[in-house]
Amino acid sequence: GHCPLMERAVITYRHCGRNIHRFSCSPRADESQRSCPVCHHTLAFGLLDAPVALTCPIRNGHAVPCAFLIGSMHGPAHLG
Question: Which InterPro entries does the record match to this protein (predicted)?
Answer without folding.
Answer: MKRN2OS-like
